[in-house]
Amino acid sequence: AKDMGADLEKILVTEDQISARLAEVAAEIDADYAGRDLLLVGVLKGAVMVMADLARALHHPCSMDWMAVSSYGAGTTSSGVVRILKDLETDIKDCNVLIVEDVIDSGLTLSWLVGNLRSRGPASVEICTMVRKPLALDVDLNVRYVGFDLPNEFIVGYGLDYAEKYRNLPFIGTLAEHVYQR
Ligand code: PRP
Ligand code: MN
Ligand code: MG
């Protein structure tokens, strides 16, 4: 696959499975937001693929905006303190915000982000993620739309990176051990 085949172990979710599931999720969103405005907020950079495909699968008109955030320090699951690298350009007061993510792992990024966005006075804040990992179930986070619940493996593709690579794989797969152990 795209010259990255040797780095992959197996495919977990195919391109067809992704688009079929996105069509289902988009239909739910269309129904839930009927008669209301909708602002999709993508979290850079992982959410780029799912934002692009979800937005095109929707029939409901929507606006799109982006945030880039970064966890403080080197620890991956430390305090949950997050810093904004790029903020929204939209004033979300009274807006229906739907945060779009590629993956929820520890849930710390989104826990913080939901709190941050709620403080700006939106009409609603909901979450849509392509992938949810098991750890996220331990966090007090109400995820309205989930593409796939996947096991706690090292996954890449469809926006998910390892050291900034593999985001452009059109499917979601596991990374071969030799890649992240060298
Ligand atoms: C990844 C992923 C989510 C977040 C999930 O982003 O895209 O945004 O981590 O992790 P959590 O649930 O444990 O907080 P990352 O910070 O790697 O940036 P990226 O999107 O640019 O890859
Ligand atoms: Mn991300
Ligand atoms: Mg990343």
Write the layout of secondary structure elements.
Layout: E1 8-13, H1 15-32, E2 39-44, H2 48-57, E3 63-71, E4 82-86, E5 96-104, H3 108-118, E6 124-132, E7 145-149, E8 155-156, E9 172-175, H4 177-181
Parallel strand pairs: 2-3, 2-5, 5-6, 6-7
Antiparallel strand pairs: 1-9, 3-4, 8-9
Helix pairs in contact: 1-2
Bound molecules: 1-O-pyrophosphono-5-O-phosphono-alpha-D-ribofuranose (PRP), manganese (II) ion (MN) and magnesium ion (MG).
Cofactor: Mg(2+)
GO molecular function: guanine phosphoribosyltransferase activity; hypoxanthine phosphoribosyltransferase activity; magnesium ion binding; nucleotide binding
Pfam families: Pribosyltran (PF00156)
Explain what the structure shows:
The structure is a single chain. 24% of the residues lie in helices and 30% in strands. The two termini are 21 Å apart. Helix 1 packs across helix 2. The mean pLDDT is 94. The chain has 4 helices and 9 strands. A 6-stranded mixed β-sheet has the order 4-3-2-5-6-7. Strands 1-9-8 form a 3-stranded antiparallel β-sheet. It has helices spanning 15-32, 48-57, 108-118, 177-181; strands spanning 8-13, 39-44, 63-71, 82-86, 96-104, 124-132, 145-149, 155-156, 172-175. The protein is globular. The longest helix is centred in the N-terminal third of the chain and has 18 residues, at 15-32. It has one domain (17-150): Rossmann fold (3-Layer(aba) Sandwich). It is α/β, with parallel strands linked by helices and 182 residues long. Strand 2 (39-44), helix 2 and strand 3 form a beta-alpha-beta unit. The structure holds 1-O-pyrophosphono-5-O-phosphono-alpha-D-ribofuranose, manganese (II) ion and magnesium ion (MG). Manganese (II) ion (MN) is lined by residues 43, 46.
